[in-house]
Amino acid sequence: MAFQSPTSLLNRLLARGKFRHIQVLLNLAELGSVQRTAEAVGLTQSSVTQTLAYLEQLLETRLFDRHARGVRPTPVCVDLLPVARQLLLGLASGSEILAARQNQGAGSVRMIGSASAIHGLLFEALLQFSSVRPSIQVHLQEVEGEDQLLAISRDEVDLVVCRQPVVTPEGWIFDALLKDCFVVLCRADHPLAGARKPSLRDLAAQTWLQLPAGLAARSRFDELAAAFPAPPGTFPIVTRSMPMIWWLLLRKNLLALMPLNLARPMLDSGQLAQVHWGPAAELAPIGMLRPESGLGSAAMQLCEFLKERAQTVHNIQQKPSEIAASPDSRRGRGRTGSGQPKPENKASKDDKHLPPGQRQSAKNRV
Average pLDDT of the chain? Predict the structure, then answer.
């Protein structure tokens, strides 16, 4: 076989390749059958066979080994499959963006965020934004750590809500929107939920739900446990799965040390309570990463909305220790000392972003 340079192969694919080739390649690899692939993509068996033959001729390599019960991908094909999947995913994302622009007129926003940022910053904010700007479609994905930087480097995202990074990516700006700190959580009827200030001995006597090693919350828990007079009991399940963590905390008398904003919706609803044992350990603030320039109109509107709302609702100037010690964080926002919803006669200040006709009275809020 003659030597093939990457450039010549690329030029050949650009000139003669088709999206249908990718679809047939992926389905053949997954289904292992020409007949089932033909049914899946809406072609005849002969068309699938011809498409595969054309693609192999185009690449000048064998992609599948034929056998009595179907086809099996060759090592070359296996190497190509991840790239083919990314191409098809990119095509699907592009279709969603185009559809949002054509059908709604105001475009879309590609947004990613960490779990803490989504729970603490976006739950109510995006609901309000969708009421104010219903023509803007927000595509939100939960992405953590290095994967956020990877998405930025690949130009796959418009806005990122996250904890303040140690180093801000070149060409991007971080706006701090929300303070954060570590808090000790339990279910609302836990014996320590109403304690004024339990001692280290009281904390050591409880059973703790641990997060995996390597997380900041786990490191902080290990520091706290080192100060206990005796090693604390730990629950046998160690996880960072948020649905599992909430499920366990609501059904067992467990304690867990976690970021305040990660638990904010559960605290606000009154399902979880905070154990006030001492000064809160501060965390880097949660905020928004945005490009210095070139931000689209839809993304700019969402960006300005989040910044304005953070100033009025979350009050970035308030210290995390004040947030953690406030009555709202102990019993859920808008609750009285008895744990019942606090009556309100006037609209919440969260509604200032909504047109008058869309504002809800406090009694209609969940």
Answer: 83
